Amino acid sequence: MSEWLEVGTHNYVLVTEGSLLNTGLILGSERAMVIDTGCGPRQGREILDAVRRKTSLPLVVVNTHPHYDHFFGNAVFAEDGVAEFWAHENCAREIDQRGDLQRGQVARLEPQMSTREGKNVELVVPNAIVKDQPVLVDLGDQTATLFYLGRGHTDGDLLVGTSTTLYVGDLVEQGAHPSFEDSYPEEWADVLRHISALRHRYEFLIPGHGTPCSDQFVKTMANTMSTAVRQARQSIRDTPNDATKAIPVLPYGPEQSRWFIKRLQENWRSSLSSS
Ligand SMILES: [Zn+2]
How far apart are CA 19 and CA 181, in angstroms? Predict the structure, then answer.
């Protein structure tokens, strides 16, 4: 059974079993906001049931970014009457255009989601869009600020701040290496420094997975990433025909190091071709 942890007044985090997703909950006097909905109808239902043990208020949903464990549960919430699904514009576009391609990832965790059988397996594309300017969502006696700090873990990572708490999605991951598959490593390190600079405003920082983090944790993550970018760049320069030579020197596991190098190369190529 998943448990709510209080992280600031009327701010909560639900640490779900399995993928250890952190779902946020912010209670206002008129509405409540749910941050990330799980990887399919089974986990979405578990999250909604947990939310309903806390509040009977109408809900709004935020998807922090377009990875399946953060939005595949949306349909459960739509069925419960949620009409407002917030996301960054790049996140909404990705879910709309390529969300279906992620169904294969949940064959084991959510077989119905992967085969599109049964209830609440349709994708619900976010319809309340944040661009580069912050958006304030009034929940009644509590305001959530939705904002974007640039590309990082993906090109559509949305942050959610309240008077006490900052929910950062997978921009910060505790207890596992960062996931680089859709990332922009050089820009991500800058986003982490920006998050760290905001820390005086928030008592609690809630990562997408794992336990609440300290400012120092975020700084270390940023510095590690910047160092890794320098190391990889040097290795690629030394052995341009075999970038995998950089893998052993990088501070991440072999699988994530491979992605890290791949993404660095792709991003450099696309910046060369656009300049
Ligand atoms: Zn992610």
Answer: 17
Q: Tell me, in angstroms, the distance from the centre of ligand 1 to residue 94's CA.
A: 13
252 occurs within a structural domain: no
Tell me, yes or no, whether 15 lies in a domain. yes
Which residues place a Cβ less than 5 A from the ion ligand 1? 67, 170
Which DSSP state fits 175? S
User: How many structural domains comprise the chain?
Assistant: 1
Helices (H) and strands (E) in the chain, counts: 8, 12
Q: Which of 137, 48, 39, 49 is nearest to 87 (CA)?
A: 137
CA torsion angle for 36, 49, 117, 39 (degrees, to 10)? 30
SS3 239: coil
Confidence (pLDDT) at 238: 84
Q: Which one-letter DSSP state was computed for residue 258?
A: H
| 3 state DSSP class of 136 | strand
pLDDT in tens, 51-105: 999 999 999 999 999 999 999 999 999 999 999 999 999 999 999 999 999 999 9
List the CATH number of the domain containing 23. 3.60.15.10
Is the dihedral angle over the CA atoms 199, 201, 203, 208 positive or is it negative? negative
Q: State which residues form the domain around 99.
A: 3-217
**Which residue reads 């391609």 in tokens?**
101
**Residue 74 placed within a domain:** yes
Centroid of ligand 1 to alpha carbon of 156 (angstroms): 10
Indicate the pairing of strand 204-206 with strand 165-167. parallel
In a domain, 143, yes or no: yes
User: What spacing in Å lies between the alpha carbon of 29 and ligand 1's midpoint?
Assistant: 31
How far is 67 from 272, CA to CA, in rounded Å?
Answer: 28
